[in-house]
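Supplementary Text 2. Reproducibility record for the structural model of the 345-residue chain.

All settings were left at their defaults, and a single model was retained for analysis rather than an ensemble. We include the record here because the model underlies the residue-level annotations in Supplementary Table 4.
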Amino acid sequence: MINELIFPKPDDMHLHLREDELLKVVSKHSAAQFGRAIIMPNLQNPIINSELAHKYYDEVKNHTKVHDFEPLMTIYFNEKLTLEELKRIQISSKIIGIKLYPKGVTTNSNKGIDSFNSGYKIFEMMEKLDIPLLIHGEVNDPNIDIFDREKIFIEKNLINAHKEFPDLRIVLEHISTKESTEFVKETSNNIAATITPQHLLYNRNELFAGGLKPHAFCLPVLKREEHRVAVLGAAISGNPKFFLGTDSAPHKKSEKESSCGCAGIYSALNAMEIYAEIFDRNNAIEKLENFSSKFGADFYRLSQNKNKIKLVRSSNKVPNSIKIDNGEVIPLLAGQEINWNCSAV
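Retained model, structure tokens:
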């Protein structure tokens, strides 16, 4: 039995830090466990250009300056992106890619694109400049069942886009279906995917067990057990096309427990300990290092982090809540015992 792991600090390749008081509190949690994180741009006023990205970078660094932590910024995909702006994005050492949201599919996505094909001219420029495209892969057609929206997005949009732009590096974010795992496995090395802890832990029963559970609500929504098993299999397979991305997305408890609860699960507080628990439970703890610290870095052509973390098998209780100004955030596995502790080396 492995009781201790030491490896290069991991990368969170999909992270929400929000703004104001939330940013101040939650950024420190990610910085304590991760060496880098790709920061999502869907703020209330989205990060639509390099100037705004650099400003947001400075805000994040100001709150995490006591840690060895590098935020990797993204631009909110919008149809005003010009070749000149894309060139500024390409040469920036602080910006890693462009994140595409179909309009209305998740938090602060109302300024996303309504037609995926309308982005083709920008995709072509991104391909030539080798700027990665990060995608929230769900259709926004209200007539499509919410449990099918990821599957339909691949069939309707992603297969054709990859054929049209085979050299464009694409990350299908927070995959939640068997179809997504199969698509990523079967396509070229320019396609990869991030995997969250919640899509490894839960199927859709978690949303309704014992009553409606708003803190288990995320988008893409949790799916049937066969899909959870497929995503878990991808994560622990050792296939370098699948890597860690928490999609940690904090909301105040009052916003989650409301008449229209926000989508998002907050996992950053104990993210590596939770991943360790999942991999250990599935007899794959030796696969965690590459999933966390190597595969994502390789896809984004980054060197591995020089500093290290230590994971030790020992009892660890997740707090019931995290206090912030005027409220609290409920973390993933709140109040539960997990069997790993993470610390910097």
